[in-house]
Amino acid sequence: MDRDNIADLIAFITIAQERSFTRAAARLGLSQSALSHALSRLEKRLGVRLLTRSTRSVSATEAGERLLTTVEPRFEEVDAALAQVSEFRDKPAGTIRLSAGEHAINAVLWPRLQRFTKDYPDIRLELISENSLVDIVAQRYDAGVRLGEQLAKDMIAVRIGPDWAMAVVGAPSYLKGRTLPASPQDLTDHVCINLRLPTHGGNYVWEFEQDGRRLNVRVDGQLAFSSSSHILSAALVGSGLACIPEDIAAPHLRTGALVRMLDDWMPSFDGYHLYYPSRRQTSPAFARLIEALRYRPT
Fold first, then answer.
1. Do 285 and 151 form a contact (C-beta atoms < 8 A)?
2. How far apart are CA 18 and CA 140, in angstroms?
3. What is the distance between the alpha carbons of residues 255 and 272, in angstroms, rounded to a whole number?
4. Which of 189, 173, 199 is nearest to 221 (CA)?
5. What is the pLDDT of residues 182-217, one digit of tens each?
């Protein structure tokens, strides 16, 4: 295969992955015109149409999907092999893209990665905050972060954090004149602040457990956010009860700005794990990241 064929294939793969000529051109550092010519050459050479364009997006034809499925893994293997060559450098290098929720980034990733970025200045990190469950392979992430119970069986997982729990909290200004809930069912009599889940298109159902009995409660209220930090801010000014990670609530519980309730009903969650495809060849940079994040109980 000559150099032009390889370049045209790379152009096709990038357009198919990005589903956009504009984004693909920016990623490859080419003009959209050059990218379009490369695709046209490849389609002419093969005698089939590989991509279908609409006013809003680009999608692969059946022939394009088959070619992408066959060729894309080969280029990924080449990328991984090139990354491994960096082992011979004085310091590992490369870009690592991670998908994680806001809480995982704030509570686990960033506290450890501050030191990591100083130790490995040639490694670039992209931390994309997403509260929805994404397909890290399709979205071209190197790894993602999820709770242990949410992991797919075909992924390699490394624990990076301890078990943790949620906390139901409210500000004294909200609780004044109201009766604290004695059981999860009592939450239906309260104004609650919801967490919106993009993946499911609905709100987080508050989870409770006591003596082996599990109970889910759909709460109601005037406000819903997609961020725990915004929910915390609303709870602090008395907008309603909130269910947030206990480590976020802890500083405000100590000062009395928030009051905790239903503590004996809160279940423990299997801690955060870094996960990545089992077929991924671990580069030196990625291997260093795993070791930096690996959870080591004290």
1. no
2. 10
3. 28
4. 189
5. 999 999 999 999 998 876 668 999 999 998 889 999
